[in-house]
Amino acid sequence: MFMSPRKAADGAFLPEDFVVPTLVAGPRFQIRPITVHDVVKDYGAVIGSLDRLAGRFGPEWGWPDREFTFEQALIDVAWLQKEGQLRRSFSYVVNTPDGERQLGRIHVAPSGEPGADAVVVFWVRADEEDTALEKDLEDFVREWVTTAWPFDVVRFPGR
Q1: Residue 73: which region, alpha, beta or left (left: phi > 0; alpha: psi -120 to 50)?
Q2: Is residue 125 classed exposed, middle or buried when 0-12, 13-18 and 19+ CB atoms within 10 A define those classes?
Q3: Which comes out higher in pLDDT, residue 74 or 59?
Q4: What pLDDT, in 10s, does the model give residues 15-62?
Q5: Fewer CB in a 10 Å sphere around the end CB: N or C, the chain?
Q6: Is residue 122 a contact partner of residue 104, using CB atoms and an 8 Å limit?
């Protein structure tokens, strides 16, 4: 049976020798894996975008909850960091080039639907909605996950 050289032979999400991207820097933003050290900025970005995020992800995701607390944010961010360490899914913060302000997030995960290798969800904070930054990020993410990651077919729910 022929298998794409881009996929893991054992059916895993990623080939063992795939080096997961750790920093992508550009003129308008930088992207790096989320860590617990991001929780303060991440919480601010989420809380300032509750209506937008609830509208984007809807009740089936159950996130973010209206009573989203800092403690819940810390648990979420730690979980996302651990998932990346285990190579099960990958979450990135999108920051300004100087790293001072979080602009959004990107999540790369296995697709639960046949016919796709991965699902990618990304968002920008509410005050960046419908800006050139959001368009630039979408263009970048679409190209990045199909050229820098070992996927043949990627789903972009909500896009």
Answers
A1: alpha
A2: buried
A3: 74
A4: 889 999 999 887 889 999 999 999 999 999 988 888 777 666 655 555
A5: N
A6: yes
Cα within 13 Å of Cα(59), Cβ side: 0
Spatial separation of the C-alpha atoms in residues 142 and 157, rounded to whole Å: 12
Domains of the chain: 34-155 (3.40.630.30)
Cα distance between residue 32 and residue 24, in whole Å: 7
Beta-carbon count within 10 A of 15 CB = 14
> Is beta strand 90-95 parallel, antiparallel or unpaired with respect to 24-25?
unpaired
Q: How many CB atoms lie within 10 A of CB 99?
A: 13
Q: Which pTM was predicted?
A: 0.87
Residues 6+ apart with CB under 8 A from 4: 152
